[in-house]
Structure formats: structure tokens, C-alpha cells
Specification:
Layout lengths: L2 H27 L3 E4 L2 E4 L5 E2 L4 H4 L3 E4 L3 E3 L5 E4 L2 E4 L19 E7 L1 H4 L9 H11 L4 E5 L7 H10 L8 E7 L3 H4 L4 E2 L2 E2 L2 E2 L6 E2 L20 H19 L2 E7 L8 H14 L7 E4 H7 L4 H5 L9 H17 L5
């Protein structure tokens, strides 16, 4: 082959190669292509959803047809300027294998934005603080944070039964925000996002699989039963599922601390307690609001600097300390 022909072939090939590179970069950006360890894998691009206000918070989630949404895996971002990191299993936490190491005990925390750590750094969430305390005291406990911002107790229950149980926890703690969790449990649309919902006390599941975004608000499904009755029924089924695996269930209730003198809030708390009394023997109930009050912590101290009344760094430290004290007095850490 003459030098002239080699030049012509090279000249013809360069644009083709550049075009191929551009296509690959485009596909990677759209997440149609994943490159890992030198291998190229084609996939259907993931669907992301965002709650109202995401322009300010920077929060977004991965659409999930079972749960509605969940944390994006292996994600590095920020929450109000604070480090936000998730692991390969969608948790805002370090990596944990499903198989529990020999000689180790585990606490699995279920919850919404309070457990997820809205507004604080990864290292400051109460689950991380609690685990670090156990490490310093040479206690063989891991604390796994499965919280997802915006989740109701129904989504938490579905997550536990399908995936959370795989961690073989010894204790399951539900960070129960009485301020909106019962309402979330009765509605198939929350924060502009579509979710599964139990329509009755038999926990008949509706809006499942969850429709792909965008959310059509005209298809909203509401439960036919009282929100407190439904919430307690979810806790009862969760307690039974925990018992089957040998785990102890702790319901850590809070939310009254934000407006302790509000008669409407106090009435809502009393209504919830009336329903909870029917199943209280099946679980351990930790009234975090009462614990805050006993230590004279105010809402301003616990939330100052964080929007919407979420815990600040001090708040998370206090929660970690109070939860550890409760677990100790209940002989759950033996």
C-alpha cells in the first residue's frame, strides 16, 4: 500500500473515531453506558425524581417501582453544603455486607429525613455518632442507617421485608416522626412523588408497582381507615416480622418537641398513644419527646441552623446519646 493510500485511510478513519468517542461520551452522560474495570456495559438509563425545592437542597432520588423512590447508590453530593454520600446498597452510610460478621450485633434504623440526616454531614448523623460511641466503648454493635428522606412507615416496612431483613439486625429502630408520618401512610402521593400505599388494616397494597414519573396527581389513592390505626397496624406487622427473625423492634417517637405547648399536636399524640396501647407489648416504645424534655433541651437548641425543624449537629448527638441510654435501660444491648 502506498503512502498516499495510508494517508487517505487514516484521514477517513479519524472523523469516524471522533464520532464514536462523542457517541460513547453522550451515552455515558445519559447513563446508557457504564464503564467499570475497563468493561463497557449497556443499560436502560435510570429514572430520577426530585421533590419540590430540589433547586435549593440539591436532593434527588432514584425512582423505584416498589418503594416510589430511594437513595441513589454510590452518590456524592451535598445537603445544604454538607457532605452527602451513599453506598452501593442505596444507604447514606458506609458499606455493610448483608452477612453479619461473626461476633457482631446490628441495629438497623428505618426512618425519613430525620434519620437520613437532612442538613447535616454524613459523619454527624445520629446513627454514625451512635456507632462511633460503640466503637470507643469496644461494644460489638454496628448501626446501619436505611433512612430515606420523605419515606412513610409503609415504605420503611416494605423496604425492611424485602431488603433490610437481609442485614440480620438484632434491633430495628423506627425513627417515627409523628408530625407527618401517619398522614404520609394514608396517601399515594407525597412531596409531589408517587408511592405505594396500604388502603386498609389488612395492609392491602395499592399503587404498586408505582407508576413511572412524572406523577399524575389525579390518580391519588387514599386509605380508607384512620391514619393512626393504619400506622399502628404497620408497626404491628413490622414487630411480627422482626420477631420471626429474632430482632427486637423499637419505635422512637418524636415531633412534639417542636411545638410542645400546641394543643392540636398534643391531641394528635394522645390519639396515636390510644392506638399504640393495643400492641405495645409487642415492641419497645421510646418517647424521644419526653426524653428531650427531661433533659431540658429546647427545639431551638436541637434544630437551630437547619430548615424545617430538622435536627442540627447537636440534635443528632443528643438523639444518639438518648437512644443509647434507652437501649441500655431496656437491656437490649446485652
Amino acid at each position: 500500500m502506498t503512502r498516499e493510500w495510508k494517508f487517505r485511510l487514516l484521514a477517513a478513519g479519524i472523523p469516524t473515531l471522533i464520532g464514536l468517542i462523542i457517541i460513547i461520551v453522550f451515552l455515558i452522560k445519559r447513563e446508557n453506558v457504564v464503564m467499570k474495570d475497563g468493561e463497557v456495559t449497556f443499560q436502560t438509563p435510570p429514572l430520577y425524581v426530585q421533590e419540590p425545592g430540589h433547586e435549593k437542597t440539591g436532593h434527588k432520588y432514584l425512582f423505584d417501582e416498589q418503594l416510589g423512590w430511594r437513595n441513589i447508590p454510590n452518590w456524592k453530593a451535598s445537603t445544604y453544603g454538607q457532605a452527602l454520600t451513599t453506598n452501593s446498597k442505596h444507604l447514606r452510610d458506609r458499606e455493610y455486607p448483608f452477612e453479619k460478621p461473626v461476633g457482631t450485633k446490628r441495629i438497623l434504623v428505618l426512618g425519613d429525613s430525620f434519620a437520613w440526616g437532612y442538613g447535616v454531614s454524613d459523619k454527624d448523623i445520629f446513627t454514625e455518632t451512635l456507632e462511633n460511641t460503640f466503637k470507643r466503648k469496644k461494644m460489638p454493635w454496628e448501626v446501619i442507617n436505611s433512612g430515606v428522606s420523605g419515606w412513610g412507615n409503609d415504605q420503611q416496612y416494605l423496604y425492611f421485608t424485602s431488603e433490610g431483613v437481609k442485614y440480620d439486625p438484632d434491633i430495628v429502630v423506627v425513627a417515627f416522626y409523628i408530625g407527618n408520618d401517619p398522614t404520609n401512610n394514608t396517601n399515594s402521593i407525597q412531596y409531589g412523588l408517587s408511592k405505594p400505599v396500604f388502603t386498609d388494616l389488612d395492609l392491602t397494597l395499592a399503587n404498586s408497582p408505582v407508576p413511572k414519573p412524572p406523577t399524575d396527581t389525579s390518580t391519588r389513592i387514599l386509605s380508607t381507615v384512620d391514619k393512626n390505626a393504619l400506622t399502628v397496624r404497620i408497626f404491628e406487622k413490622l414487630a411480627e416480622r422482626c420477631a420471626e427473625t429474632g430482632a427486637k423492634l423499637v419505635i422512637m417517637k418524636f415531633g412534639v418537641f417542636q411545638v410542645p405547648n400546641n394543643p392540636v399536636v398534643r391531641k394528635a399524640e394522645a390519639l396515636f398513644h390510644a392506638h399504640l396501647a393495643k400492641i405495645q407489648s409487642k415492641l419497645h416504645y421510646f418517647d424521644l419527646d419526653k426524653a428531650f424534655s427531661s433533659k431540658s433541651f429546647t427545639a431551638k437548641q436541637l434544630t437551630e441552623g437547619i430548615e424545617d425543624g430538622h435536627w442540627n449537629v447537636l440534635g443528632h448527638r443528643v438523639v444518639a446519646d438518648l437512644l443509647r441510654s434507652f437501649l441500655t435501660t431496656q437491656s437490649l444491648l446485652n
